[in-house]
Amino acid sequence: MANVKVYNMKGEEVGALELSDAVFGAEYNEPLIHQAVVTYLANQRQGTKSTLTRTEVRGGGAKPWRQKGTGRARQGSIRAPQWTKGGVVFAPKPRDFRKKMNSTAKRGALVSALSKKLADGELLVVDEITVSAPKTKEMAAFRKALKLTGKAVVVMDENKPDVILAARNLEALKTISVAEINTYEIVKNAVVILTKGSVQKLEEVYA
Predict the structure, then answer these.
(1) What is the pTM of this model?
(2) pLDDT digit string (tens) for 131-190?
């Protein structure tokens, strides 16, 4: 089992925590992580775009001019794609982009990503995340205290509206609850910050 340092919001070391190998010591599986990320992103797509084909636009019932004798190219409808306000060729239509991934594979991708972050020194544990008021400066000070330079995600053991509001204006700091954790958020961010409570819940579910 790996031991990690535990910090407070001032960036001070306040203890240590032993992490379960079942969650934080898994073998790195890049193909599985890739599948989980692709599945997550595909499932975020709405698939609601829609444009009109030549059969759906208005007008075009009559032939614009006779077939021969005008010197112009033959035309059957003013709603053909080459006409202004005509239909769209191969028009995009609403569709479902969702992909499926079984729960065992999702779990494997998540623990593999978490283990990789720990191995690379990109996973931090804090005792708790609290703010006195929903002020951006408090979370900005927290980010500075931990010397974070890239994008980071804070995984909390429960939803804390004040913390969420305090971090909302910080582009490089995102807050999610442990129930919302996914492989994409782990891979996307340079640093993953877990509270002690979220570590406990992760180990209860995935160990």
Answers:
(1) 0.83
(2) 999 999 999 999 999 999 899 999 999 889 999 999 999 999 999 999 999 999 999 999
Question: At 61, is the pLDDT very low, low, confident or very high (cuts 50, 70, 90)?
Answer: confident
Cα distance between residue 170 and residue 151, in whole Å: 10
Query: Using H for helix, E for strand and C for coil, what is the string for the chain?
Result: CEEEEEECCCCCEEEEEEECHHHHCCCCCHHHHHHHHHHHHHHHCCCCCCCCCCCCCCCCCCCCCCCCCCCCCCCCCCCCCCCCCCCCCCCCCCCCCCCCCCHHHHHHHHHHHHHHHHHCCCEEEECCCCCCCCCHHHHHHHHHHCCCCCCEEEEECCCCHHHHHHHCCCCCEEEEEHHHCCHHHHHHCCEEEEEHHHHHHHHHHHC
Mutual angle of helices 103-119 and 30-44, in 10-degree steps: 120
Mean pLDDT of the chain: 94
Sign of the alpha-carbon torsion through 141, 142, 143, 146: positive
Question: Are 36 and 108 a contacting pair, CB within 8 Å?
Answer: no
| Token digits of residue 10 | 């001032």
